[in-house]
Design a protein that fits this description.
Strand content: 15-25%
Largest sheet: 8 strands, mixed
Number of strands: 8
Helix content: 25-40%
Mean pLDDT: 79
Distance between the termini: 8 Å
């Protein structure tokens, strides 16, 4: 019976797709599972920390109320800092919700995973103020300003540990459930065999449009990118005359999109290797294409996706 099952939960990194973690937790609780420990990287650390502190419902109510224009204001864009986004406005709200909470005082064990940029290794936060641990874990390199703490330069935990199953191994639980936020289409893992010979323009324009459309068709992403040297007009590809593009002319893809997608590609590959070493009992995979990393105005939609995927995964395992 689900009522007798205890769960150790590993919540992966993936920006706004991490709202799906909320839906996962909701379904587990509704089905009578008892979550007895959580580990999280990046957005997984944020959601996991709030849950372990008993504050997830309050955060969910706030997050689902945000509109695209609210998100743009909260992202606190900077032109000069080591990251494009300070994130202090968002973290300020999270601190208000959490209060002065320390990890060791929370109701269930919690681990926030960050990356020590200088040492090149993962860092597990298992005691101390939870807001500082979350702040370190969400610092996407080049996007959110790193956290300097006790001589360490700390960045996003997803850099080395996009799905932190390992910290849950010490938790006594009936099941380990991992939630990955970067599931790729299976066919995309096969290397493309191509040449460098120039091809007719009409052959690559369509491919270019399909490949770049995913970066630029969301209002939140466009608004942020337009502030620091990305797609300056904030409009879609079809509106910039790409159908008439010549061989030496193409619309620009901003730094933020390139950086974010590059990290996603690396993390997706790394997550597959880690899953081979530390396979959870149940793996819930949220498709990468379900949302972009900065689509923080889509909380309601992503929560629903998390719920649906969790229900399907549990039903498939007959749990």
């Amino acid at each position: 019976m689900a009522q007798s099952r205890t769960v150790a939960l590993a919540l992966g990194s993936g920006g706004a797709r991490g709202y799906a973690h909320i839906g996962v937790i909701q379904v587990l609780e509704e089905r009578g599972y008892s979550i007895v420990g959580v580990a999280g990287s990046s957005m997984g650390a944020l959601i996991g920390g709030l849950y372990a502190a008993g504050k997830l419902d309050e955060f969910t109510e706030w997050a689902t109320s945000l509109k695209a224009r609210d998100v743009v204001r909260l992202l606190d864009v900077s032109m000069s800092a080591p990251g494009a986004i300070h994130a202090e406005k968002v973290l300020g709200r999270v601190r208000e919700i959490l209060g002065e909470t320390c990890i060791e005082d929370m109701r269930i064990p919690f681990t926030a995973v960050a990356t020590d940029l200088a040492a090149g290794r993962s860092v597990w936060f298992q005691h101390g103020p939870v807001d500082a641990a979350i702040r370190a874990s969400i610092a996407i390199p080049g996007v959110i300003t790193p956290l300097v703490l006790n001589g360490r330069v700390l960045v996003d935990g997803g850099i080395l540990d996009p799905l932190p199953v390992a910290p849950t191994l010490s938790i006594r639980a009936d099941l380990t459930i991992g939630v990955s936020l970067g599931a790729e289409a299976r066919e995309s893992r096969t290397p493309a065999r191509v040449g460098t010979e120039p091809r007719p323009v009409d052959e690559w324009v369509g491919r270019f449009k399909r490949g770049t459309a995913q970066f630029l068709d969301r209002e939140t992403v466009k608004s942020v990118v337009s502030r620091f040297g990305g797609h300056s007009t904030g409009i879609g590809l079809d509106e910039v005359g790409l159908d008439e593009v010549g061989p030496d002319i193409a619309p620009k893809i901003g730094r933020l999109e390139i950086m974010g997608r590059s990290l996603e590609v690396v993390q997706s590959a790394l997550a597959r290797y880690q899953l081979a070493v530390y396979p959870p009992d149940v793996l819930i995979q949220v498709p990468r294409k379900s949302a972009r990393s900065l689509d923080f105005a889509r909380a309601t939609e992503m929560i629903a996706i998390g719920r649906a995927l969790t229900e399907s995964a549990l039903d498939a395992e007959d749990f």
